[in-house]
Amino acid sequence: MNELLPFLTYCALMSGTPGPNNMMLVASGAHHGYRRTLPAILGMVSGVALLTFVMCLGLGALFIAWPALHAALRLAGTLYMLVLAWRLVGQPVALDRPPQALGFVQAALFQAVNPKSWLRAVTVASVFMPAQFSLPAGALTVSLAGAVVGFPCISGWALFGSGIGRLLSSPGRRRAFNAIMAASLALLALMLLY
């Protein structure tokens, strides 16, 4: 319990606090509702779990050996988030044509360039790996436990967006919402760069 409680708390904090995933889920929830956002939620949870599993198996050693690889990944993630923010601003605001929902595969693959997901995976691999398990068993345990904790945390953001979506009954309100979400995502991207 002394090791489990800090780990679960860390996973809840990383999943529940604002970040690129959660900003995208608020926007998707607002435009599509929770049910159509669920594939993105499952994709994000699966992508983070897979990233954590691979990191726990030793991928983190590459970042120690080649720090430039970490810097390149951070830059790629920042640029991708800026592109997502730009696309969010440019999305159609017609109420009868909402933007396309983020799918499972897109959301899972986004974790490969999401700096917050990498930070979480590196921290779990370096701080929370259970010493009493074999390497694969420990990696699987923390990856699955993190997914179980993360699912309800990020679902809350999609539900919040779904609630906000009811207020976006005019193109002007929807345009303003998209601009706010895009600015938030761009700001997060730039903050993660430094």
Automatic annotation (TrEMBL):
UniProt entry keywords in alphabetical sequence: Cell membrane, Membrane, Transmembrane, Transmembrane helix
InterPro entries: LeuE-type
Name this polypeptide is given: LysE family translocator
Keyword Transmembrane helix: yes
Entry superkingdom: Bacteria
GO molecular function, one term: amino acid transmembrane transporter activity
Gene Ontology cellular component list: plasma membrane
One Pfam family per UniProt: LysE
BP GO annotations: cysteine export across plasma membrane
Membrane topology summary: Multi-pass membrane protein
Annotated transmembrane regions: 40-64, 71-89, 137-164, 176-193
Cellular localisation: Cell membrane
Recorded coiled-coil stretches: none
Record bears the keyword 4Fe-4S: no
